[in-house]
Amino acid sequence: MMTESDKDIVLEVKGLSTWFETRHEVIKAVDDVSLTLRHGKTLCVVGESGSGKSVTARSILNMIPKPGRIVGGHIILHNSSLGWSKGGPVDLARLDPKGRQIRGVRGREIAMIFQEPMSSLSPVHTIGQQIIEAIRLHRRVSHAEARAHAIAMLAQVKIPRPEQSIDSYPFEFSGGMRQRAMTAMALVCEPKLLIADEPTTALDVTTQAEILDLMKNLQSLYGMALMFITHDMGVVAEIADDVAVMHQGRVVEQGPVDQIFFAPRHPYTQKLLGSVLALEKRSRRALKAPRQEGGEIILEVENLGMRFAGRKRLFGGATGQEVQALDAVRFSLRRGEALGIVGESGSGKTTLGRCILRILEPTSGRILFKSRTKDAVDLAALPMPAVKPFWQEMRMIFQDPFSSLNPRMTVLQIIGEPLRNYGVASGAEIEDRVARLMQRVGLPPEMMRRYPHAFSGGQRQRIGIARAIALRPQLIVADEATSALDVSLRAQVLDLLLDIGHELDLSYIFISHDISVIRYMCDRVAVMHRGRIVEIGETEEVCENPQHPYTRSLISAIPKPDPRQRGRAGRIRYEPEGAAGS
User: Fold this and answer.
1) Exposed, middle or buried, 18 (CB in 10 Å: 0-12/13-18/19+)?
2) pTM of the predicted structure, to 2 decimals
3) I want to staple 157 with a disulfide (CB 3.0 to 4.6 A). Which of 180, 293, 447, 494 is the partner?
4) Are strands 323-334 and 297-308 parallel, antiparallel or unpaired?
5) DSSP character at residue 82
6) What domain range is 183 assigned to?
7) Are residues 174 and 198 part of one domain?
């Protein structure tokens, strides 16, 4: 007999094992995992990269890339509306991964939203064409009816002017708009279960908050079960009813969200939560060596402006409007200081960092840089050949540790390259220096002849840090240097940067959309909006007592890693002056 509680079950995963068998080894990506998804409830699956979260999600839809395969367990879909199932339970693990039956499940009974919508939306078809195709695949309706339904769905996910937006291509949408379009496509056939695989990881906090609000509202409207995969414990605290914690392919702990946060039993869960809570306050390392007031200014940015010319349309036509990426930006940086730059995507953070290093050429303003041996020089006024010697004093750490390292070079070659290029060392001396640098960032020197693919994401970022400090620079611009890392690695890498900063008397410009990272690391913070700095001050003061309405909006959008605080602090939405009538 089924109890009332059992009738709410949409899907049961029982003892699921998905393995990847290679010539040399068997990787147990998912090993004996059991989960239960219920109508109207949200199960958050959390864990580090490589823990098996995404493979579990793909296994549910029986869409595992080769050489992976389901080797054991059951995936039971209850109360299916598929004709051939006669309303009874269906074991999805037993269906042909390429067969008609599982294709009928995908999109209709169970839908999935992926982390990066640009890689899962076709770039050569309009948003409307893709949503209409999803509708007509599962429903017998005319093209006109499907189009009308698609427009209604775009309106429901709050895409502006849906009647016009339906004929736009994905590249014409912002990241948040693309994620909304993906959500519309996933929900257009009203599935019983929505699987969202890291759907907000690449979004800034305000856009993330909007997407989370949207999903909660749509879940309430449709009563669907939601399986939300994330490594952000703030998001978990905000939306989860239940939590499953994964580690090395297994579920090590699961239960109600309150229990997981306040009475975690497994050591891995305790470690994960400890890493999250550490980022809620200033690092002890930063407090041990506070910035000296009145110290020497090494960088002064005055009225910096940057305009991007309008792009020419494909196949001719009018040129698009110019974009004012930076507008009269001014700030100073002292020796040994860490300055955070925070703001939404498109606010000008990365453009500012690249202009300071003259990777991009600003259109106005001055960048006064004082090296250890020379008077202050305006980098903005120098021709490019004259800028290059200053790159020995100013280095950059990039966001993605995967794409910023040459896969064809060994770690020895990667870290040794700036030493060789600037004539600092040669021959055996380079190997000695690289060995010391690897030890300094916590990597075994004996691994220097390996290639980047042999290292984890956290190790690759350490390689990038070793390369950046190889020339003992004065200034490092770190552009989202920890956003691609798991939360447990984030604090480790930030602590490493702080230690190196104190040791070398380094100054940092730390660009991030994550205010918790800025609070942990930085002495001061500058808040950017639409190319301008709208507020700048001591980090703690700005975070606890923001003055500008945009800063208040930004801070109100950050999910707190405490489910008992859910909904306590209302969202503040920022409306720039003149926006209402535009």
Assistant:
1) buried
2) 0.82
3) 180
4) antiparallel
5) -
6) 119-190
7) no
